[in-house]
Amino acid sequence: MHRPNRRGFLAAMSGAVIGPGALASTSPARSVRYPGDEHRGKCVIASANGLWKDGTGCIVQAMQLIDEGADPADAVVAGVTLVENNPDDHSVGYGGLPNEDGVVQLDASVMHGPTHKAGSVAALENIRSAAAVALKVLKHTDHVMLVGDGARRFALRMGFKEEDMLTEEARQAWLKWKRNLNPKDDWLDDDQSDFPPPAHSRIDPDIPFTYGTINCSAVTDDGTLASCTTTSGLSYKIPGRVGDSPIVGAGMYVDNEIGAAGATGRGEAAIQSCCAYEIVRAMGEGKSPTEACLHALERVADHTRQKRLLNDKGQPNFGLVLYALRKDGAYGCASMHPGYRYAVHDGVTARHLNAPALFE
Ligand code: ASP
């Protein structure tokens, strides 16, 4: 059985605020090792795309609504809706990269702490607000999950509008991927064509697959929690492929007595190790939010046994970032590998922080 590189794990821990003496996660005298350990009170945490360069974005919107007294489920959905509407974010909503057939299929879920209700949609086509549709499932049905055409028709009944979700930029990226799929097929690449290549695309054509998603969790001053995850999923996926984002317990999870958690990155791994549930469970056992994320990543590394998913050090070769928010407002995040950031609004400021990595 594969074991994660313990040394890398400890290196990640020692890179934190105070040294590695504090591994005993349940000790009440535990020293603070990550910025989010100390925070108390209202908080919104999201993946890095939850805060834009101009200081606006998902977490700012969600915090503003919480300050106005909104329910955190409404607040996180309103926050991620900004990202879904942004055509420049090719991992979420409108402008998301399509599946193998050139069709954008969206996945989203939302969970409300006080009622422990969840709503989710998967493989939703032609509707940009997947998270808002998931919230409608939560609020207006006795179900948790609607998929495919049923989800689309439900959205129409709820008043959402149908539209073509494939932007020109995303279509060009998909065409590029298709042309490069098989050197022997009949699709001509730019350099083989007699015509000038298509206008420059801002999507790096050398990256054949991209992951990307937004997870956003929020807690109010009185400890009311919610979480939401929305995505266009793995780009160029097999039509019908559903990732972790709409799976309750994988892409996000909330237990209002403990906390909330979410995941972005390789959805298959988050599903197979029930990442969001595992983080919340570990926080319930006394782990800090960041420790709980690192613990869930360790389990993923331990469960990753296919050679093609391991690098030459025997570590998972894919990206996975986990986010956690505790009922008292403490927050944390961790990634499988270095180089990832996350976004936090602590009630006063919105900022990006570096995610500690399991394998530094
Ligand atoms: N987790 C998403 C999925 O697998 C993609 C991502 O977060 O990048 O569909």
Q: Topology of this structure?
A:
Blueprint lengths: L5 H9 L28 E5 L10 H10 L4 H13 L21 E7 L4 E8 L5 H11 L4 E3 H10 L10 H12 L34 E6 L5 E7 L20 E4 L3 E7 L1 H6 L2 H10 L4 H15 L16 E7 L4 E5 L5 E5 L4 E5 L6
Parallel strand pairs: 3-4
Antiparallel strand pairs: 1-5, 1-11, 2-3, 2-6, 5-6, 7-8, 8-9, 9-10, 11-12
Bound molecules: aspartic acid (ASP).
What does it look like?
The chain has 360 residues and is an alpha+beta fold. The chain has 2 domains: 6-16 and 33-93 and 213-354, (Glycosyl)asparaginase (Glutamine Phosphoribosylpyrophosphate, subunit 1, domain 1, 4-Layer Sandwich); 167-208, no CATH class. It contains 9 helices and 12 strands. An 8-stranded mixed β-sheet has the order 4-3-2-6-5-1-11-12. A 4-stranded antiparallel β-sheet has the order 7-8-9-10. The model is unreliable at 1-30 and 196-209 (pLDDT under 50). Bound molecules: aspartic acid. Aspartic acid is lined by residues 91, 211-213, 231, 233-234, 243-245, 264-265, 267.
* Rg measurement, Å: 20 Å
Main sheet strand line-up? 4-3-2-6-5-1-11-12
Distinct bound molecules = aspartic acid
Q: What overall form do the CA principal axes indicate?
A: globular
Helix and strand pattern:
HEHHEEHEHHEEEEHHHEEEE
Mean pLDDT across all residues, rounded? 87
Structural class: alpha+beta
Distance linking N and C termini: 21 Å
Largest β-sheet summary: 8 strands, mixed
CATH class of the largest domain: Alpha Beta
